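Sorry, any thoughts here?
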Amino acid sequence: MVNLFFYCFYAKIPFLAHLIFNRKWAFMQHLPDNIIIIIADSLRYKTVTSATTPTPYLNNNSYNFTQARSAGCWTLPATASLFTGLSPHQHGATSQTRSINKDIPTIAELLKNNGYSTHQVTANIATTEIFGLHRGFDEVVKIWTTVKPKFKKMQQFLVLVGKPRLRKKLFSKDFLMAKMSEDLDMAKAWMQQMINDSFNTAKSIIQRNELKNKKSFIFINLMETHFPYHISPVFKFSTPGLFEKFAEAKQLFHLANQTFLTDNKHHTKTKQLKKIENRQLTSYNIIAETIDAFVAEQHQNKNNFVVFGGDHGETFGEQNWLYHFSNVTDGGNHVPLFILPPGKNESTVVKQKVSTKHLFHTILKFLAINTNGPSLINEPDDATAVLESFWYNNKGKTLPQFRHNQFCFIQNNIRYRFFNNAWYTAPISKENKEPHFEKIKDKGINAINEFVTYNTEKEKLNRLFEEFRIFSTKI
């Protein structure tokens, strides 16, 4: 056998030896020691590009996707898409259905089957068993249960009162009593920074698994950039004076509760919305250096696959929408995404318009696990950005004009949106302005057939669109 190998090598058939060594190297390359996904909740792309805190390691050692869009517009559908590689109508976790279809495998389940110890470290109850996003994880660390509150109980209660989704779950028959104390405790996530607790917990998990010679998959959800946007270690108002504080509290209440859906009134003016938008910018500026340092620690000179990004964006008045439910705005779906495979030590800017749901396929393909979706690294042109939203039933009082589901795809520099049985178009957003959609006058037009060039992409989008319409009628 040895003689045959050297014969092949020196008889000018070097590809055989090359194949042997390359297969061995490829196998090693496709098995990162740890896979770490860090998601800053609600972090929109514009916030990152406007930040003044430098993130040199992320910028200089990653695939930086400048045109990434989330598949959904709030935590449940967007995270479910990250976990399954599917659009919301395919995995089923929407504003109405609320959980992933049980027969759909999650990335945690697949990685667990391939030898990884799977862990979730989260500051958002929406990524846990409350909506079924815990499936496949060996351990879910709810970080709010591990830290001491730095604020008064009355403040904690007031946050709960201001969150209708939590009130509904808190007093539902399925969660009554059993979840009450936990949900009250969870309000810490809205009241204080916990990023260092989350990162320290992740480090401990990795160290613990390394002692057992185990590989780790860790999903980390950070809430600092989520409403009400932490601008200090403990919640505080961004404006001085009692009157100003009261006005800011009122604005935050209307934003989080989306009262415009029930009364069609915009209680928050443009100038006030800018102040709230700056709260997220401030919150990211505070944590950006910590994120960059953690990514560098976990990636530099290590065989780790690290990702940082946002699950979805945030809408501060774009297309007249507020907060991050029910819309397909660029403000609400355009998100940062940095991918750092093992050994990546230079910057690659990816300008193709992609969907973050394909992070699922990117990781699996890197590990040579069979999947039928494109890799964002190797096949960004095939990772077409498709956005969906499903109307939010705000305490049963959402007005008829807001009761519509939306399907949106991006071709070249144009967004095509379907709702209320009509297609609309708008250019993708500029840095400081999001153009309004204009209705296509020809009622019989199918924007996919009319404006998509390649037949394979046209077929894919038509299939997704038809599935979306069927799903929408069922719910």
Summary: Residues 34-147+192-385 form a domain with the Alkaline Phosphatase, subunit A fold (CATH 3.40.720.10).
